[in-house]
Amino acid sequence: MIRLNQVKLPLDHNEDALQQFVLTKLNITEQQLVNIHVFKRGYDARKKNQITLIYTLDITLIDVDEAALLADLSTDQNVRISPNTDYQYVASAPEDLEERPIVIGMGPCGLFVALILAQMGFKPIVLERGKSVHERAKDTFRFWRTSELNTESNVQFGEGGAGTFSDGKLYSQVKDPGFKGLKVKQEFVTAGAPAEIIYVSKPHIGTYKLVTMVEKMRRKIIELGGEIRFETRVEEINMEEQGEHKQVTGVTLHNGEVINSRYVVAAVGHSARDTFQMLHDKGVYMEAQSFSIGFRIEHKQEMIDQARFGINAGHPILGAADYKLVHHCKNGRSVYSFCMCPGGVVVAATSEEHAVVTNGMSQYSRSERNANSAIVVGISPEDFNNDPLQGVALQRKLERHAYVMGGSNYDAPAQMVGDFLAAGKGKPYENVEPSYKPNVKMTDLSEALPEFAIDAIREALPAFAKKIRGFDSKDAMLTGVETRTSSPVQIKRGADFQSLNTQGLYPGGEGAGYAGGILSAGIDGIKIAEAVALKMLADLTE
Ligand code: FAD
Question: Which of 112, 139, 166, 232 to mutate to test the pocket of ligand 1 (most atoms within 8 A of CB)?
């Protein structure tokens, strides 16, 4: 197959334009062209009234000497042989293997560790503190409706992990030379995600589809011999001293039950603060990691569509517009938009009592009236004395303060951008109705974050308006606080994916500092599954 990169066509090109392009580019006849497969489709909207689509195509040919054709076009960087993107399993478990790997957490990282291990014949035991996704959805929606929080079953905890009630964006900045991201997306499609997620450059799934997909993936793991236990919190990872290192021996559950295994994956997400504390107390090596704090901002989606797509706003290929913004401030801080949810809602995302945390989610249709994103300021380990658990303490302090500012009932503090920029008091909202549930309390948000963060956001919003007209309009809505953008700790691991000082412990995903979203957590899960499988086989032959 031949791969063509950077194939640019107008947004409204007709059906045969791709074929015509391929025939001309490769100088072949229609009879020699068997198939055009769209590997990727993105768009360039820098000129909003003249948007172009950008394709990567894989071309199947017949009666063509591909080597000669490639030699003829060797100076053209955009014509190459298509890489093999099929996923190759690295191991296969022997039938009589008795020891079973343990996977803590069933977010995207744990889900893919378990799925790939199960597909290779290792029969993982998955331990998830939260409930099955169906039961968890009931608890989460109840919290949004009635302010009754279940601290073990919520937006952060439960089958599917933190991204289950989300926009389901599936793109990532991570380098992925082995096409593991494609394997993640293929498994999602098999479980019911729209097929287009394989090729569009910014795929998303939306929350309802994610819920049913996670259920199907769970069934597959069980069919392959895996075991999944919900409402099963790991209280301790057990280990013994072996010379300079520790060796994992298994886990102790919340009910005192002990499960032995020398292979334990900790894919616990960024909100497992009690689990971080336990690992820290046991001497597992970890470091403080940068994270960010800020607010959610909401605008009318149609305003963002107009600003980004001009006369093409509403075009079905483009869908609801997103954005990505960054501003470097005078005080040395950077402010950026994060986890943008077109046509979505702001959600209450705390897992702890007496705390308010915002995040965003949307449906596949992205048809809600508001666009939202986190507008956050980076803070680094020096801001919390390089102590890993001080980052957690800072997050908690801000979340509890926001709870009080919101009225001590899980309503979130909110303010219109105009009032925030003018350092004014919280007035009733105008055009942009806040979507956070249970409710918001209009107040003065300048008290919600440290001064440097408030100054930075006040400087950034007008700067963002130079890129997206109206971004700092006075009726845009800020809701706070956004504190769980990433993990404040990194549980360091070596090239073999095991903890630096604890053999048999495989820290992974977002909580351990190795992923920053659904796709990258899934990719990390595949890598860990491969490392665990190879180690288990190597230990068998020792
Ligand atoms: P998690 O998904 O956090 O999963 C960890 C799991 O471990 C949890 O289910 C938890 O219950 C369990 N656990 C923790 N401690 C224990 C224990 N001691 N014992 C047993 N189980 C335990 N990312 C995107 O890429 N796109 C998006 O659109 C997007 N939107 C988001 C919207 C929201 C509302 C949120 C909260 C996050 C969103 N994210 C999004 C981020 C994304 O969800 C995370 O990056 C991703 O889920 C991290 O995966 P993970 O498997 O590492 O951890």
Answer: 166
**Distance between Cα 64 and ligand 1 center (Å):** 48
Amino acid, res. 81: I
pLDDT digits (tens, 9 = 90+) for 171-221: 877 888 889 999 999 999 999 999 999 999 889 998 888 899 999 999 999
Rounded Cα distance, 55 and 39, in Å: 8
- Considering the domain architecture, whether residues 279 and 143 belong to the same structural domain is answered as yes
pTM confidence score:
0.95
Residue-wise pLDDT tens digits, 73-82: 999 999 999 9
Answer whether residue 501 is part of any domain: yes
Distance CA 121, CA 94 (A): 8
**Residues 244 and 312 occupy one common structural domain:** no
CA atoms of 528 and 532, how far apart (whole Å): 6
Mutation to probe ligand 1, out of 395, 506, 510, 526 (largest number of atoms < 8 A from CB): 510
CB 479 within 8 A of CB 346: yes
Number of domains in the chain: 3
Domain that holds residue 237: 102-287+489-541
What is the ipTM metric for this complex?
A: 0.99
